[in-house]
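hey so u asked for the seq, here:
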Amino acid sequence: MSQLRPLLSRLGAQAVRLLATRDILERSWHSRSSGSPAAFPSSPGGGSSSYMEAMYLAWLANPQSVHKIRGHHVAQLDPLGILDADLDSFVPFDLITTMDKLAFYDLRETDLDKEFQLPTTTFIGGSESTLSLREIIRRLESTYCQHIGLEFMFINDVEQCQWIRQKFETPGVMQFSNEEKRTLLARLVRSMRFEDFLARKWSSEKRFGLEGCEVMIPALKTIIDKSSEMGIENIILGMPHRGRLNVLANVIRKDLEQIFCQFDPKLEAADEGSGDVKYHLGMYHERINRVTNRNITLSLVANPSHLEAVDPVVQGKTKAEQFYRGDAQGRKVMSILVHGDAAFAGQGVVYETFHLSDLPSYTTNGTVHVVVNNQIGFTTDPRMARSSPYPTDVARVVNAPIFHVNADDPEAVIYVCSVAAEWRNTFNKDVVVDLVCYRRRGHNEMDEPMFTQPLMYKQIHRQVPVLKKYADKLISEGTVTLQEFEEEIAKYDRICEEAYGRSKDKKILHIKHWLDSPWPGFFTVDGEPKSMTCPPTGVPEDVLTHIGTVASSVPLEDFKIHTGLSRILRSRAEMAQKQTVDWALAEYMAFGSLLKEGIHVRLSGQDVERGTFSHRHHVLHDQEVDRRTCVPMNHLWPKQAPYTVCNSSLSEYGVLGFELGYAMASPNALVLWEAQFGDFHNTAQCIIDQFISTGQAKWVRHNGIVLLLPHGMEGMGPEHSSARPERFLQMSNDDSDTYPVFTEDFEVSQLYDCNWIVVNCSTPASYFHVLRRQILLPFRKPLIIFTPKSLLRHPEAKSSFDQMVSGTSFQRVIPEDGVAVQAPGQVRRLIFCTGKVYYDLVKERSSQGLEGQVALTRLEQISPFPFDLIAQEAERFPSAELVWCQEEHKNMGYYDYISPRFMTILGRTRPIWYVGREPAAAPATGNRNAHLVSLRKFLDTAFDLRAFEGKMF
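ran it, structure tokens below
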């Protein structure tokens, strides 16, 4: 050996020798024990091979062979031939050329033709029991080092690893029939000619086309075909905008004329909502899968330009569809997520979503992830976009196999996608298909990529399109003729032209044609639109009593609960006997009464089972039996709807997106997400801004998700005080300058016109009613509830059954009902407020003896603004100064929202004075004494009846 040999031995070969030696010793021991001859080594003449020969063969045939572990590093994955998919051109010693490896093991080229008996741990032999060393090497390299790169040996399940090895090592597995090749060619024709048609007709329009990865269309169709064959009936897809129109046309099979109509510059605005650009819209379609002749339902979820934001939404919708079908194992419903390489590596929500994949209350039993690996992100080189070798490395955290494949080898792509679909439906686990491709144009069709990637795009301009490559291959081997190929192209071009002609006859393309989650029958009764009314939200007294009884008991026998919890249950029983409720019991009664009416309730978030503030206790834990739990809420009624309460992972972005998707699936469920503290929604802001606030306007997506955000200034510091109500109010779409007409159905019609509802309840009864109203409304709107902390146990924050029984309803405004109403003309000040500060004001008013001079009115619903009820209150106390009092700082909270609306009501004839904390950068102080000083200061101002004398407004 050369002088390099000792160095190589210390590096790559040392581990190889150890593995090989161990393998030989193990086999020798087994052969001695059984009395049978060793499986290897043996030569055709029966003579013994050298030790080095044996070690080399053991290395090749061992299940831990370097080809299986690291073969993907040298696989030919880049269609352009200029980049390394793993960003590293280094070739490990273990994978250098054959002659160098032979020399290292003191072998000659003639040794390559010696025959060896194969161990049972490999599948490369197929039905053959012996192979030459040359053929062994060829087969391993063909499997692991060509156009497919496999990452799976990190999976800690031997059965799963063996399953993958068998799928790829077995000789002949990638053989396709002529019919299969023709189908693949036809799908490629549709994919490429669709892009060409758009480019010809709308050359100056952004399309975010699929050029350079046209194989994605047959790839997705293969996943769907294979999944349908294995029993899947419903597939939910999520994807970014690149290739979206092609997927809509050729995978979901949306009518082409509806897609083309979106390019019409004269397209009139939809009569509801603002709409969204065509490459963000979703779709829902039921059709026959032509390969399996089975029904398949496909939905593509609408997604903004926040590329991976749709991932958890798709998972939530998939989970809900599985739940409603009783598909606990994911045998009927599954999801497919399409990603870009830069986004997959760079956006944290991908990681958050992966970590939901195996949690009991969040698993969808496996997702097929397809990465369109452009090897570039907008203008950013991958070496500047990620620190990991591959963009897909994040998937390794959940032991998902990763199949890299050269996207210019259509047959390899199709085989990999078929295996991926089979993996998902066999093991119910995630799997990643990495389509290593290129982007023929810039980030969009108007962009010039040569500015930043000149060498790459010089190669791309020379690159032969995959359709021509594959067509030439099939023509040369006689599978199709040139005439048949040209006829297939002409046939699809004709389909596009005819659809283009029909699109000219379309009048208004309504955005409702692009719904990704239709709710058939929800918006109508006997074919007529529902009336804009909401029935009373109260329930019979006996229902409240029954729920109170169950909420204070343990339905299971021999179930030992914590002694502290026993006191809590006794307290609930006492409240139920006195027909009063606190916050937790009011929530219990809202949920329980809806379950009785067949409404599924799902509550999710960090620590929601017990409640962050130890007030809820919806899941009881046996103190003596590990993991034995009881959910009394599921023992209320014989035929009740199911209640799901689940602690989430420590994620806000991913989990809120998941619950939003869950709420999309059906209008007949109350889906709630609770933040551990209100301001923790900060890290879920993308879901709030892009989906919840604007979802209906952009995508006509009604959604009834409820956000529970603990809020209140209680001296706990800036991180645990404010749920940032100002943000939600700023995004509310009701007009501060328009004085509405107060019709008989004003309350409900105002709710219908808003983009979401924002409330800050001051009583348990209000909380009870607003939760029930959420379901009883004839439509769905997101509901933002600023929930309390100290009020959870405040002795005054109690409600009686009388405020919750049949005939009662949610009060948008709770007016003054004390001494002040006896002589309203003598009231000198009317203070409007919302939430917890009301109790501070009541206490201070009482201590100063000002009940007859100061009235207090509470806004329970802040947005949409209750113009009608505020006007009534202002008129009821005509001589009173009007004051808005809040505990938040002046530049936060509600003041900037309510002030212009008060001015509209009052016609700017009376001021609405501000009382509260001064403007600040942080939402609260972390010093308890400073908190109490500022509280004392604004309470003094609130009841100083001369505070505003002589001031201008």
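The domain at 814-942 is CATH 3.40.50.11610 (Rossmann fold). Confidence is low (pLDDT under 50) at residues 1-49.
lmk if thats what u needed
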